[in-house]
Amino acid sequence: MTHQAATALDVRLRLLAERPDDAAALVVPDVVIGSPRSAADLEAFAAGCDVVTFDHELVDGAALERLERAGHRLHPTAATVAIAQDKLAQRTRFAAAGLPVPAFRAVRGVEDLLAFGDDQGWPIMAKAVRGGYDGRGVWRLDGERAAFDLWSSFAHTGVDLLAEAHVPLDREIAVLIARRPGGEVAPYAVVETVQRDGICRELLVPAAIPPAVAAAAGALARQAAEAVAVVGLLALELFVVGDRLLVNEIAARPHNSGHWTIEGAVTSQFEQHLRAILDWPLGAPDLAAPAVATVNLLGAADGRDPRSGLTLALTDPAVRVHLYGKSPRPGRKLGHVTVLAGSLAEARSRAGTAATHLVGGHHVVQGER
Ligand SMILES: Nc1ncnc2c1ncn2[C@@H]1O[C@H](COP(=O)(O)OP(=O)(O)O)[C@@H](O)[C@H]1O
Ligand SMILES: [Mg+2]
Question: How remote is the CA of residue 198 from the centroid of ligand 1, in Å?
Fold first, then answer.
């Protein structure tokens, strides 16, 4: 998706991919096969680039620092990536900057989990400090037994854990914001992210929150972008509790919560990221329609290929389908569908119908939003 945006601006991408059948490697002509966790691969790759950027955080942080010291331009910088890849560093940095975060503590032994549960009241949440995504690396602990079980499965793995208060959240939202090296920012409209089992299922814009809460979310995104000095796109995930907001986590790159911007905003997050890291003027982040709904296509249990439902999904001319070219596996994010409409109810229903044609009905999240 970044490549699509790069093509229009004649920006030439070079891609570091682990495997030739990685989704991006299927479309970017200039591919280097290597590992983002190998310092040697990163160095060889960066040698030919004007600017190095990221589409995930699973990169060797020490190697990034060395690249920067050797004069390579990294956007976001190694320091920003170091925070984005570490949930404990995020909590610490944002708390120090005065942003509201759930109560948290680092876990060095099971006694820390138990003390935190006693202190906050159960349930509590435990999280892998690094490497988690789509709810992998997030556990709800209902009491001491669960804490012991989790600890016994992690004590010897070298995975660092963080404990945090379980938040009785009403909804989850995200704010995408682009920032140029000089500090100029462009925030998008607040998006509601509908999650189930720790995985984002739907994106709904505008989020159904009062204008004052939306304004507060926008202000937090500006503060967060400053606090981590991001260059490029930042996605700020927030919990909504009544009319209060708590920071969940960030991603310092184009993010799933911004996939709606491809058709739903004047400038997509992918183009905006390129413009920001190249220090080019930012595009308008404004909405392109009154309402935008995006449904993530999660692989069906029967392993079907979403392409088998493509012509049926396309019978609704408003439906915009994005398939990532990944091999289908149950629960894997295989693509997404976006619909722009006059109302959120209509956009959501048409996107949901198309998603059902592509991967079956399991993506549907019940309930009024
Ligand atoms: N402290 C919490 N209280 C309640 N729910 C939480 C909490 N932390 C995470 N969750 C739920 O788990 C989901 C995934 O957690 P998150 O930290 O964002 O991990 P990931 O890196 O997998 O996205 C969140 O979107 C939210 O639905
Ligand atoms: Mg998350």
Answer: 6
> Residues 3-19: what's their mean pLDDT?
97
The answer to whether 127 touches 164, Cβ cutoff 8 Å, is yes
**Distance (Å) from CA 249 to ligand 1 centroid:** 8
pLDDT at 175: 98
What are the tokens at 307? Answer: 């392409």
Ligand having the closest approach to the CA of 129: 1
pLDDT of 91 higher than 90:
yes
Say what the pLDDT of residue 48 is.
87
- Contact between 207 and 221 under an 8 Å Cβ cutoff? The reply is no
Confidence of residue 368 (pLDDT cuts 50, 70, 90): very low
DSSP assignment letter at 71 = T
Backbone phi, psi, residue 200, to 5°: -75, 125
Number of Cβ within a 10 Å radius of residue 71: 7
Name all residues whose Cβ lies below 6 A of ligand 1. Answer: 102, 125, 127, 132-135, 137-138, 164-167, 169, 172, 195, 198, 237, 248-249
Backbone dihedral angles phi then psi of residue 221, each to the nearest 5 degrees:
-65, -40
CA of 226 to the centre of ligand 1 (A): 23
Q: What is the mean pLDDT of residues 334-363?
A: 95
Q: Minimal CA–CA distance to 355: which of 333, 161, 367?
A: 333
Q: What share of the chain is helix, strand, coil (3-state, %, to 5)?
A: 35, 25, 40
Measured in Å, residue 242 CA sits from the centre of ligand 1 at: 17
The identity of residue 314, as a single letter, is L
| pTM beyond 0.85, yes or no | yes
Ligand nearest to the Cα of 87, by number: 1
